[in-house]
UniProtKB/TrEMBL annotation:
One GO term describing the cellular component: cytosol
Organism field: Mycobacterium xenopi 4042
Disordered: annotated segments: 288-319
Compositional bias segments (type: Basic residues): 304-319
Name this polypeptide is given: F420-dependent oxidoreductase family protein
InterPro entries per record: Bact_Lucif_Oxidored (IPR050766), Lucif-like_OxRdatse_MSMEG_4141 (IPR019922), Luciferase-like_dom (IPR011251), Luciferase-like_sf (IPR036661)
GO molecular function per UniProt: oxidoreductase activity, acting on paired donors, with incorporation or reduction of molecular oxygen
Amino acid sequence: MTNSAAGKPNLGRFGSFGRGVTPEQAKEIEALGYGAVWVGGSPPAELEWVEPILEQTTTLQVATGIVNIWTASADAVAESFHRIDSAYPGRFLLGIGVGHREAHAEYRRPYEALTRYLDRLDRHGVPANRRVVAALGPRVLTLSAQRGAGAHPYLTTPEHTAQARQLIGPAAFLAPEHKVVLTTDTDRARQVGRKALDIYFNLANYRNNWKRLGFSDDDITRPGSDRLVDALVAYGTPDAVAARLRQHLDAGADHVAVQVLTGVTSWSRRWPHSPGRLAWHPTLNEEPYDRRGFPQTRPWPVRRVARHPLHRRRPRRAD
């Protein structure tokens, strides 16, 4: 849904971030009070898994976190967007991003490639207020507000959220992701957190952002200092974790995408499911990447969906 007064998406205060979410899991996420489910892992351009989730829920929104511009054609993504939005108006938010130099041989001049991708989405009529951009640094954060609804920063801190809000202004949408481990055992929380963070130490985009936030080379060297892990992964009592996530809201976030790390293969229901405080949905979030950041699997569910008859593919234009 879009907030008509502010012109920005309204996903509620908290969403659930995961990979391979099924329609049944989405129903439970909605019942727990989440406003949105964010699906990561660079899903393919066809986005055929979105409709089953929206079909099985009533108000839950689906957001991509994110579609990768190097692997997903803007033409196909735009077609998918219009098909989904026609069937479920206002319930799909398109998140796009440039990914990482270490994972894509095509990675050249990413800022210019991103602007061209946005140009093509414009030509296909994808509304700016229904798309967000994965952004960490000042240049892309600014672009996210100029060419989209706003930004979806990943693996950041409330301090970064405050800086981002100051940069993009009050009218832009800001939805950071934050990881959570549901335990009061500090050693266990850091162990699970380090496992989830491990692949990111090789990725320059994240390392550079952590340095901008004041972390040292020692902090950001694998396996990461306690200071870094504690900044990126919330843990403790429900009240302590909720307070940590609310720091993003206090810093200017409109919405926080909560990625709960379990470190096990079963779902946990140990924590209060009170949307008024924070709705917990500890889905399994094992990272489907190798140590270089390359996807190992296609974890999202896929279903064949017929092309919407009213949507016509536009002819490809040369950039």
